Amino acid sequence: MSQQSNIAGQERATLTSYIVGFVTSIVLTVEAYLLVAHHLIEGKSLAAAVAGLAITQFLVQLFFFLHLGRETKPRWKLLVFGMMLVVVMIFVFGSLWIMSNLNYHMTPKQINNYLNSQDGL
Amino acid sequence: MKDEEIAKTTSKTIFGFWLYIMTDCVLFASLFATYAVLHNNTFGGPSGASLFSMPYVLVETLLLLTSSFTCGLAVLAAQSQRKNQVIGWFGATFVLGISFLAMELTEFRHLVMDGNSWRRSGFLSSYFTLVGTHGLHITVGLIWMVVLVAQIRRKGLTPNNQRRLTLLSIFWHFLDLVWIFIFTIVYLMGVVRI
Predict the structure, then answer these.
(1) Start-to-end CA span in chain A (Å)
(2) How much of chain B exceeds pLDDT 70, in percent?
(3) What is d(CA B8, CA A85) in angstroms, rounded to the nearest whole number?
(4) Residue B136 has pLDDT above 70, yes or no
(5) Residue to test with chain B: of A4, A16, A70, most B Cβ within 10 A
(6) Tens digit of pLDDT for each residue in A5-58?
(7) What is the mean pLDDT of chain B?
(8) How far B36 CA sits from the closest chain A CA (Å)?
(9) Half-sphere exposure of B9 (CA within 13 A, CB side)
(10) How confident is the model at residue A83 (pLDDT cuts 50, 70, 90)?
(11) A-B C-beta contacts closer than 8 Å
């Protein structure tokens, strides 16, 4: 039996873990939806709450569905996952930072000049 | 000895597939970054708040989430060598997945028919690329599911099929994970006024 579970996957999944993951995910999704749909809170705190709920659900599904972090040492999957997170953060926040910086340094006058110069096209 | 070798190959294959999933995450990250940069560039066209129907998207989300769960149940059934249950749970996953895809395509169709296609604005270009790429992954996953179920029906739950089944389940759960962020960043945040 132990050999069977080794063949099916390195980490043996259990029904309880799937049910816990599923129910938690549904609760988090519906909660985020209700917060937005009924304007229970407003503005930046709403955005922060929704982002927080998404990250919580991300972690819940990683643990209960993808069984991350439950492998035996050495934890290569976890290591590569961490590397991926670093690259993703650089991609997303780097892009946003650079593009908002470009917007900031482009004055309205420059934008108008640019638009005028494009009129002939 | 033979079982040990199979287990070794399986764990190597799973790790290799995991590496692929991580690079796919980077692909989606670049699309998310593009969307985040362009989402305000509506070029006088409609913004997300006026286009998206939230109850519709919630149903889509719940469909995909449930399909992720039934896919997990198929893995459990495979662990205890219950072939018919595996086929049954994959059947349920397939129906839920294809309903999700149909809903997404219907949404795309409505947008394009109303003149809000990817050609309308930078916002809509990035929207269609991001959500469309996810939909394409779902399509691939559904085709894979059909092929795998056919193989399981013919040859049973052999070690090879068990391995394929594990890989498909990783792929499917990963698509559900990506959708959480599409649901949150594109749809929920698109409606929130900051």
Answers:
(1) 72
(2) 98
(3) 27
(4) yes
(5) A4
(6) 444 444 567 899 999 999 999 999 999 999 998 887 888 899 999 999 999 999
(7) 94
(8) 7
(9) 10
(10) very high
(11) 144
Integer Cα distance of B32 and B47 in angstroms: 17
Residues of chain B neighbouring A18 (CB-CB closer than 8 A): 69, 72-73, 76
- Residue B187 class from Cβ within 10 Å (0-12 exposed, 13-18 middle, 19+ buried)? buried
The HSE-up count of residue B158 (CA atoms within 13 Å, CB side) is 11
Alpha-carbon gap, residue A57 to B15, rounded angstroms = 24
> Is the pLDDT assigned to residue B176 strictly greater than 90?
yes
Measure B180 CA to nearest chain A CA, in Å: 7
**A61-72 core/surface letters (b: 16 or more CB in 10 A; e: else):** bbbbbbbbebbe
The pTM assigned to this predicted structure is: 0.90
Give the C-alpha separation, B102 to B132, whole Å. 12
Prior bond to B46 cis, omega within 30?
no
Looking at residue B143, its amino acid is I
As a residue count, chain A comes to: 121
Q: What are chain B's domains?
A: 2-191 (1.20.120.80)
Asked if residue B148 lies in contact with residue B83, where contact means CB atoms within 8 angstroms, the answer is no
Copy the structure tokens of residue B76. Answer: 């459990």
Instruction: Fill in the DSSP letter of residue A65.
Output: T
DSSP letters of B63-127? HHHHHHHHHHHHHHHHHTT-HHHHHHHHHHHHHHHHHHHHHHHHHHHHHHHTT-STTS-HHHHHH
